[in-house]
């Protein structure tokens, strides 16, 4: 199974919910820290206000309504934002910002689903991943501290979407498989 960005988060959650599944190994590309990114971009006050507002809208049956004040280029429903940004939610699989900034957002163990994976896994990031907190080596080292037996690859000059580096990405995955 191969997924990119929050898709890597979905693999972690899927494996947590169904560890005995049809997949023999995983490829996780650019596991994302959406919670940390939104916290960083929105600031503490606005982040937690929107999170609380989202939770209230969901409880009132208005979760599918769109948030009008998120980020200029983003459109989210309250449910969508809450799912991705909730520090204690399932998508918060790669909380790099909590490690880097020493800001405690989640009450749950960091990398809790990532560490549970028992299947052979390949983790790939682009060297210039714009969502990796500026230091891909630190990101990889954090992940290695939680899953030292996984294989880790950094693709040189690649961004988060592997723009212009799809061939190198395909080769790395096929060589590993």
Q: What characterizes the major β-sheet? A: 4 strands, parallel
Count of the domains: 2
- At the fourth level of CATH, the homologous superfamily of the largest domain is Alpha/Beta hydrolase fold, catalytic domain
Oligomeric form: single chain
The first-to-last residue Cα distance is 11 Å
Structural class by SSE content: alpha/beta
Q: What is the CATH C-level name of the largest domain? A: Alpha Beta
Residue runs with pLDDT of under 50 for 5 or more positions: none
What is the helix fraction of residues, given as a range? Answer: 40-55%
Overview features:
7 helices, 177 residues, 4-stranded parallel β-sheet
Summarize the helices and strands and which ones pair or pack.
Layout: E1 2-4, H1 6-17, E2 26-29, H2 34-42, H3 44-59, H4 78-85, H5 96-101, E3 121-126, H6 136-146, E4 151-155, H7 166-176
Parallel strand pairs: 1-2, 2-3, 3-4
Give a nutshell description of this structure:
This protein is an alpha/beta fold and 177 residues long. The chain is built from seven helices and four strands.
Overall description:
The chain has 177 residues and is an alpha/beta fold. The chain has two domains: 1-33 and 92-177, Alpha/Beta hydrolase fold, catalytic domain (Rossmann fold), CATH 3.40.50.1820; 34-91, no CATH class. Helices cover 41% and strands 10% of the residues. It has helices at residues 6-17, 34-42, 44-59, 78-85, 96-101, 136-146, 166-176, and strands at residues 2-4, 26-29, 121-126, 151-155. The protein has a four-stranded parallel sheet with strand order 1-2-3-4, with helices on both faces. Helix 1 links the parallel strand 1 and strand 2. The longest helix has 16 residues, at 44-59. The mean pLDDT is 92.
């Amino acid at each position: 199974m191969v997924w990119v960005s929050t898709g890597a988060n979905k693999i972690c959650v899927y494996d947590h919910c169904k560890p005995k599944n049809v997949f023999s190994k995983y490829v996780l590309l650019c596991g994302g820290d959406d919670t940390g990114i939104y916290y960083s971009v929105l600031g503490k006050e606005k982040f937690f206000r929107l999170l609380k507002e989202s939770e209230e809208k969901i409880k009132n049956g208005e979760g599918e309504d769109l948030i009008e004040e998120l980020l200029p280029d983003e459109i989210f429903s309250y449910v969508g934002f809450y799912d991705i940004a909730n520090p204690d939610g399932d998508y918060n699989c790669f909380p790099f910002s909590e490690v880097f900034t020493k800001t405690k957002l989640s009450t749950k163990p960091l990398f809790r689903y990532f560490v549970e994976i028992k299947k052979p896994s390949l983790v790939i990031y682009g060297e210039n991943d714009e969502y990796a907190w500026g230091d891909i080596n630190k990101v990889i080292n954090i992940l290695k501290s939680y899953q030292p037996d996984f294989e880790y690859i950094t693709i040189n000059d690649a961004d988060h979407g592997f723009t212009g580096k799809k061939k190198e990405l395909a080769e790395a995955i096929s060589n590993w498989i």
